[in-house]
Amino acid sequence: MACVFGPEILARFLSIPSPKEDKYGQHWQYNSRSDRHSKVGCWGIAFDMLAQSGLMQQHATAGKIVLGVNHPMRDFKHNREKDLDLVIARPDQSRSGTKGTFRGLVTSLGIPLSAAEDALLQQLPDISIAPVGAVLVSLEAKAAMTAHVKAKPRLYDELNSSHSAIHGASSQALAIGYVQVNHSPEFYSSVINSPLLKHGLPTEITKHNQPKDTLEIIDKVSQLPRRVGKSGDGFDAIGITVLDMINDFKTPVKIVTGSPAPQPGSNFHYDGMIVRMANEYDATFAHI
């Protein structure tokens, strides 16, 4: 199995409360109204793919690829626009200017890397964040941390619109979906508890029915369309990371590796997703 780092980076990142306050002055580890978990989840996938794909490293060294963050993607087929968390793309030669680099996101997003992860990052070629031309890889991450049953329709619809947008614009592009699911039996919701904390009122803890809630999200994600080859509609890969997170400002986030998390060989196992997508990148974009 490949040596990957994304889930560990994500868990370590979410263990640290956000330096940015919400509107009630609270510093949550996870806030459903923030996209910090999505951005760092996608950064980890890009990091692992870059480490696995020699061709992507060659393209980065030659300046043949750039990054787009919160990139607006217009579906040519249906003329709909969707902002994608992170894309790897050919540069737009008609526009100039950069807004940082892949390595620089470690500082700007506050990603805590281990010594080994940082050493690997320094060995890999950097990628500029710059105007995007043709998209090669799109990364979209979503989370289901609480109220799992209520979250299912929203999660499905948001992810479904992501692969539709990317493949409506380019059938060759690789669309990757990443889902973060909370397996903790208890959770402090930022939506419920931020106003309570602001006014000095007792907090409320949400109870989850585990493993049923986690399994329901995984089952819903498994219903998303997937494709093989460069025709048809669906994601080229979907990865699922199951976390144990209470969101109490202090308890470290843990990765669940046993059941009900996807196991090695599953269509949704993170490690397999990285290997498959690195190979697909090498096979699809050797000509650029």
UniProtKB/TrEMBL annotation:
Protein's recorded name: Uncharacterized protein
